[in-house]
Amino acid sequence: MPNNGKLLFGLLLVLTAISYIVIDNKASMLDETQQLIPELQSDINDIDKIVLDKNDQRISLYKQSGVWKVNEVDGFFADTNKVANLLLDLRKLTLKEKKTKNPKNFAKLSLADSGKDAATFITLYNGELEISNISIGKEAQRSQGTYVRKNSENQTWLSEGLFNVKLDAQSWILKTIIDIDNSAVKSIQFSPINSVRFKINKLTPQDTEFIIKNIPENKKIKADANLNYLAGGLKNLTIDSAIGLPEMTDEFLTTKVEYQLFSGMIYSLELYNNGEKYQLKISQDNAEADHIQDKILENWLFEIPEYKYNALNVTLSDFVEDV
Questions:
Q1: What is the C-alpha separation between 110 and 106, in angstroms, rounded?
Q2: How high does pLDDT run on average in the chain?
Q3: What stretch of H or E contains 212?
Q4: Distances in Å between the alpha carbon of 161 and those of 44, 146, 158?
Q5: At what angle do helices 80-92 and 3-21 cross, to 10 degrees?
Q6: Rounded to whole angstroms, how far apart are CA atoms 283 and 268?
Q7: pLDDT for the residue 143
């Protein structure tokens, strides 16, 4: 696998540990009575489950074999940076000023249990052990702070800093699933369902231009054809969402694309157009056994942006014309 591919997926295994090692010196020096969640000063690396709740919205993030996942997206991989930043931001929350202790007034701070003034409830776990249970309210109007409460107490507080939690499951997933530079691609075969198959390739990694193999005798390459552009399909390949791979039929299949790298790795892509949904299925050959990339790519159906779908769903007629 190319170095940039190894870097991307290797980060999934190590980012959790690396991110949590970073310590804010100011926060670490605070007295525990000033911290909303003092347990995070020493136990941040032990957190393996985070539950975010607000009314009927819920996000459950959990760590499995050292990798964070999103329960509401069929257990797909979470963006480890976002999870780490959430914990570090929680770790920095400090109690600045006491506010109301009357539950009847909690709604004024967006710390109510439910309704339009509901708080965002955050619960941290280590295994089955609940480490912390807090409420996050609205931002204060006249200061750089957020209203908060430890749910075991009625006392509310104005905390230092602003804190915003997203309750959209898709915002927590890993979005870039492959990032392979064009220079690593040896050949690409396009097999549109309703058109002829064609292939582009180059001989060595040092070659700067791709060529089309076996151009029909009565055809020539268009003057404005950009074959190198086709090799960018695996560069920064981002997704909108992911679901556990359902049983697929060929009803919505539009094309198949096979990328072969100079390393010997092969990525096989299948594109589907289901109404307004643009979907992608990926498998790979010659991958290292039990590699993290296998788990990210295979057995998932990805929804991708329309522009990415269009960049992959091409035909030979897009690049050649009559002599």
A1: 6
A2: 87
A3: strand 211-212
A4: 20, 6, 9
A5: 20
A6: 5
A7: 76
Res 289: pLDDT: 55
pLDDT at 189 over 70: yes
Q: Is residue 171 part of a domain?
A: no
Nearest alpha carbon to residue 148 among 93, 83, 105, 85: 93
Show the CA angle centred on residue 106, arms to residues 146 and 154, nearest 5°: 90
Yes or no: say if 165 and 52 are a contact pair by the CB < 8 Å rule.
yes
The whole-angstrom separation of Cα 323 and Cα 318 is 15
* pTM for the predicted model, two decimal places: 0.82
Q: Are residues 19 and 73 in the same domain?
A: yes
Tell me: pLDDT of 9 over 60: no
Residues 266 and 136 placed together within one structural domain of the fold? no
**228 in a domain, yes or no?**
yes
14-23, 64-73, 74-83, 202-211: least confident range: 14-23
Question: What is the Cα–Cα distance from 38 to 191, expressed in whole angstroms?
Answer: 57
153 and 16 co-located in one domain: yes
pLDDT at position 290 is: 55
- Taking a C-beta distance cutoff of 8 angstroms, is the pair 311, 232 a contact? yes
Of 121, 138, 165, the domain-final residue = 165
Query: The domain containing residue 280 runs over which residues?
Result: 176-322
For residues 226 and 142, state if they share a domain. no
Is 8 in the same domain as 154? yes
